[in-house]
Structure formats: C-alpha cells, structure tokens
C-alpha cells in the first residue's frame, strides 16, 4: 500500500483541500489508504504508483466486460466524434430501448435516466402517480440508492431497529423529515408471514413494495420463491405495484434476476452494467404503469426529464455492452461465479474457520459467519467483526486484488479460472494470518 511519500498519498492530501473528506463518493473511503487509478485494461487496474491489481470490484458491479473493452472503446469514440449530447433525441436510444425490452417479458416500455438511484426514485414516484398513494414498503437493510425514501432503514442497528416482527423505520441521514420516514414501511427479508402481516396494516396506503432479489447489503442470498410470489399476490390483491431493484442483479440472467421467479414485476429499476462503464439508469415496466410519463387528458401525471438522460455516449456504450453479453456470455460468467463460490467454500472448510460465501451468478460476498445469513440482522457486523472484514479487504489490496469493501465481488467477462485461483490462494494466506482474530469474533 502507498506510504506517505507515494503519489496516491500526495493526491489524497491535495484532495482534502477541495473535496469534503477528499472524495465525491463515500464508498471510496474504507479501512485503508486512498488509492488513485492511472489506467486499466480487462480485469486489471494500475494505480498512479504503478501497482497492478486484479479488479473484482469493477466499479461496484458496473463493468461487465472489465475495463477498456475494445468494442465499447471503438463505438464510443466514434459517437464522441459525432457529438456528446443534443437537445434532440438520437436513434441509439431507440436501439438500446428495443434491445433491453427484448430481454424480458416484464419490459413493455423503458425510460433512461442517469443512475440506479434515479431509476429507483422514478419507480417510487411512478407508483405514487399511478396508485394515488404515498407509502412505500421496502426490505430492512435493503440498499436502493441515495433517494430519501430509499435510504430509510438502509443501515439500522440493534439500538434502533426495533422488534424483528415489527422493524422500525430508521432514517439514514441526519435531518431526514419525519413524515418521509413515516411514509416508509419496513418488512423483514424472506420472512413471508411477518412481511404480509406488516403490509396488511397499511394495505390501503401502500403505493409499491420494492425488493432487490439478491440484496447485496442484506445478505446476498436470493429472495425465496415463496417470498416473491407472496409479495406479488399481495400487491395485486391490494392494488399496489411490485418494483424490482435490479441495478446490480440484472447481470444475473439475460432478463435479470427476475427470470428466476414466476412473477412479472410492474416496474424494474436498472443501472450499473447496462451503461457499459458510463453513468446510467433505466426504469422499465408494463404499459399501463409507464403511461404515467405520458401526457393525457389531465396533463402528465409524472414529468420526468434530465439533461443527460439517454445521452448518446452512454446509450452507445450500453447498447454495445449488452450486445456482447448474451445467453452464452451470461452462462459462462455465471459458471465462473459457481467455480469461485465452490472453491472459496472448500477453502473455508479446509481452514476450519467460521467464514462462508453467498451470492449467485457473477456476484459473491464473503461473510465472517459459520452459515449464510438469512436477513439484514444476521448480516449485521458488530465493530469487531467489521474491523476484521476491513483487514481482509485491506490485505487483499496489498496482495494485488480489488474488492468491494463489504468483501464482495462482481466478476467480468475478461476473467478466467486463473484469476479465481489467484484470489483463493491470496485469501488462504490472509485468513491464516487473521485466524486468531476471526475466531475471537466468532466466540
């Protein structure tokens, strides 16, 4: 890792003079020195001090083809030569919309925005416009971006999360309006009976139920079919909408994680990998709900605009990325994810330590737990556990690997079994050295 004389350290000192905390993204702050990228190719990133690392973070699951993917570079360079944005629509927006709508039976229409946060925000607002109701229900601990309503109970703690059968709605940011918190209904993950009891108390007030079918910050365990089907039935019977947040999980199948279930959500929020490395968000849904964005007899129920929405550079990058991520590429990358989880599980068993791995497809997360956690409360890390997880991630950076700072990974198509084997080998050394601390946390 860089010392005080490194270029990264000097850049961070300079950054703190002009940027609050030295960054514009709090997710870059973790238990280790700030690092600055110089360039990247495929699944490897080189920092400004010349150190190369294998990238298992991929800008928090945004790069499905790794870095500087030649077809994207070529297509984007050509588009930049033609212009980067206009007060006109472009044909590539239609091409990309057609491609995405063709990947899922749930997508009749689609609107592009600039981030996953915006996509979820638009979905929640669309649900309110369509139903005329104000309350949004979400899973405890679920991360859905930086929208005020989405942030409620994103990071509760034992001190404020309330009873398991009646989770409290806990604001994330200081100063969050009380009324906003009161309009958010919190349900436990994968607990169908309790979730339905809570929803029934507010049946005539709820506009939508929002779920991430593989919630990264909850436990990265797939939502059960029973849970998803029950929520779908409840929303239909109570005239509310079901929203899937597939900002991270859309990579899991050609049509997203929802392809694993026998339900059709009303709306789906997407982002990250569908932008081909550029800022993007999208909200797709069924025809009648998506009509809230269209002018009718009484005007537009929900105006939705953005200067950079459907920017032709992003549309070109995303269209190209998805064209090269079809059924065979999805299957190959998911197989690599299976290989990673299998070998990590075997490593933890051999080391005889209380560590497990969760995930599906090309996503996985390492937990300092003997068994996969089932919900946010089981996933929650006390300070000592969080410190050890931070030490693992920091050690991986030292060993030449980039991970999402929850000790999670998002694979990319340039990766092979070689990179997985290298990661497992590095974790073998790291976990052996940290074994006393891991056992102390588990005691």
Kindly describe this structure.
By secondary structure, this protein is of the alpha/beta class. It has two domains: 36-64 and 327-442, Alpha-Beta Complex (Aspartate Aminotransferase, domain 1); 70-324, Type I PLP-dependent aspartate aminotransferase-like (Major domain) (Aspartate Aminotransferase, domain 2). 39% of the residues lie in helices and 15% in strands. The protein contains 15 helices and 16 strands. It has helices at 7-15, 58-61, 70-82, 91-101, 116-131, 148-151, 178-182, 192-201, 225-237, 287-290, 312-323, 327-351, 376-379, 383-399, 417-442; strands spanning 37-41, 44-47, 52-55, 109-113, 135-139, 162-163, 166-167, 184-187, 206-211, 241-245, 267-271, 281-285, 356-360, 363-367, 401-402, 408-410. The strands form four sheets. Strands 4-12-11-10-9-5-8 form a seven-stranded mixed β-sheet, with helices on both faces. The chain has a four-stranded mixed β-sheet with strand order 1-2-3-15. A three-stranded antiparallel β-sheet has the order 13-14-16. The radius of gyration is 22 Å and the shape is globular. 47% of the residues are buried. The mean pLDDT is 96.
Offer a quick outline of the entry.
The protein has 15 helices and 16 strands.
Structural class designation: alpha/beta
The whole-angstrom Rg is 22 Å
Compute the number of helices: 15
Assigned CATH architecture of the largest domain: 3-Layer(aba) Sandwich
Task: Compute the average pLDDT.
Answer: 96
- Which spans have pLDDT < 50 for at least 5 consecutive residues? none
Identify the strand order in the major beta sheet: 4-12-11-10-9-5-8
Rounded to the nearest angstrom, the distance between the terminal CA atoms is: 31 Å
How many individual domains?
2
GO molecular function: pyridoxal phosphate binding; transaminase activity
InterPro entries: Aminotrans_3 (IPR005814), PyrdxlP-dep_Trfase (IPR015424), PyrdxlP-dep_Trfase_major (IPR015421), PyrdxlP-dep_Trfase_small (IPR015422)
Pfam families: Aminotran_3 (PF00202)
Protein name: Aminotransferase class III-fold pyridoxal phosphate-dependent enzyme
